[in-house]
Design goal:
alpha+beta, globular, two-stranded antiparallel sheet, four-stranded mixed beta sheet, 6 strands, 7% strand, 20 helices, 432 residues
Length: 432
């Protein structure tokens, strides 16, 4: 428990960076593993109820994170091996064991389909395709690589590329598997970049004054591999290894972000605990002390900075700005910014600032979509550097933007602009 509590990959990343599906998915998957291995003895076949419960938990994990459905293969193998007594011997392949494997598979499948089928039917009703997930898509292979490299500005130029008339960002999206097949060399370079990012996240020290690691203290990792090898024939360790391997293959095959790694880190944490427990009392005290010190140092790296602990997922600028706007603007007025968090504070406002090259094109796009206010927060300033002239403090009403309010949060400036009508001939100047 102390390893989990002091490992930033679980205690910090889950609360700060994994505000979406990652933490619930990890919880459901490891819950399914706990149910699947039962007592931990391979020779004890699981009951039909236990198999049904495994299917339900994996189905719930699928609803939380559809692209993680492949994990069901691990549990299918675990249930099948336990059904035949835990050993792949020639005398295990009997009609009775085959019947038991089939029964357990049907029970697990029933629990899985109970939760999977409604969502698949929902996807089909909207897309016309039978598919398990509609999330694993992108506009092109370069946009996918930009995600792998964490290049948000580069990705935006592809994802929100303006149409020829400069009035729309709608684009066709393609399945990542199709992009990988069409561009095999580019895909291999993405996998290479993912490996580099994983090495950086897991093994390289954090770039802070306090020495430490981003996800888990490095001195604990050898004990995870020690436990994996020493207990490689035990059901719980096999289940953990399967989850670890599949979760790792998934992130390396798509893209590596710290918030996608809680299942991997959780497996390492459990295995490290098993490895430490196998040591002699004297060595255990020594390595536990080293592990605690290294873990505390790693955790403290997130306390550095001029404003104290960095546990907040996002800067508060957008929240402060929208709080000021509520009650001062019309409830249905359209507000535009780059932050995708805007609908949390101003519901129904989902229009994003496209990667325009000048203020005139921004006004033309915003005017076409009926935008009344432009919220120029630090996120938008970072991702749309070509709009920096709006921050010079001058009067920009001749360009269609008049300053409504300026606020400062922790030294960062946010400007709220109101759009004003411009003559038609000025709009024509910004046309492509």
């Amino acid at each position: 428990l102390w390893i989990a509590a002091l490992s930033p990959g679980l205690s910090v990343i889950v609360t700060r960076g994994a505000g979406g599906s990652e933490a619930p998915y990890a919880l459901l998957v490891f819950g399914a593993a706990l149910v699947a291995v039962g007592s931990g003895r391979w020779a004890d076949p699981p009951s039909l109820v236990r198999s049904f419960a495994v299917g339900l938990l994996v189905g719930a994990a699928y609803l939380v994170r559809p692209e993680g459905i492949a994990i069901v293969a691990i549990f299918g193998v675990i249930l099948a091996i336990r059904a035949i007594g835990g050993r792949l011997r020639r005398d295990a392949f009997t009609l009775a064991n085959a019947t038991r494997v089939l029964a357990l598979g049907l029970a697990c499948g029933a629990g899985l389909l109970l939760l999977v089928s409604p969502y698949v039917a929902f996807l089909h009703s909207h897309s016309g395709k039978w598919e398990l997930t509609a999330k694993s898509v992108d506009v092109n292979i370069q946009a996918w690589r930009d995600v792998a490299e964490n290049d948000r500005i580069g990705r935006d130029t592809h994802l929100y590329k303006l149409s020829q008339d400069g009035l729309s960002t709608r684009q066709r999206q393609y399945a990542l598997s199709a992009l990988a097949r069409e561009h095999p060399k580019a895909y291999l370079s993405i996998v290479g970049e993912n490996v580099r990012q994983f090495y950086k996240s897991l093994l390289s020290p954090n770039t802070t004054l306090m020495p430490g690691w981003r996800l888990i203290a490095l001195p604990l990792l050898p004990f995870a591999f020690f436990a994996l090898w020493r207990h490689r024939s035990r059901a719980p360790v096999i289940a953990l290894t399967g989850i670890l391997g599949l979760a790792l293959i998934t992130v390396l095959g798509f893209f590596v972000l710290n918030r996608y790694l809680p299942p991997v880190i959780a497996a390492f944490v459990v295995l490290a605990g098993i490895g430490l427990a196998d040591l002699s009392p004297k060595r255990q005290r020594l390595w536990v002390a080293i592990g605690v010190i290294a873990s505390v140092c790693s955790l403290l790296t997130y306390f550095e900075g001029p404003h104290g602990p960095q546990f907040v997922r996002e800067r508060p600028d957008l929240q402060v700005a929208t709080r000021w706007m509520r009650g001062r603007i019309a409830p249905k007025a359209i507000v535009m910014t780059r932050s995708t968090a805007l609908p949390y504070y101003l519901p129904s406002n989902r229009l994003l600032v496209p990667p325009v090259t000048d203020v005139a094109r921004l006004y033309r796009y915003a005017n076409h979509h009926g935008v009344k206010y432009f919220l120029f927060d630090p996120t938008t300033q970072l991702l749309r550097p070509d709009l920096a002239p709006l921050l010079d403090g001058a009067d920009h009403s001749a360009e269609g933007f008049t300053t409504l309010h300026t606020l400062q949060v922790e030294g960062r400036i946010t400007v709220i602009f109101e759009l004003v009508p411009l003559p038609a001939f000025q709009l024509g100047r910004a046309a492509p």
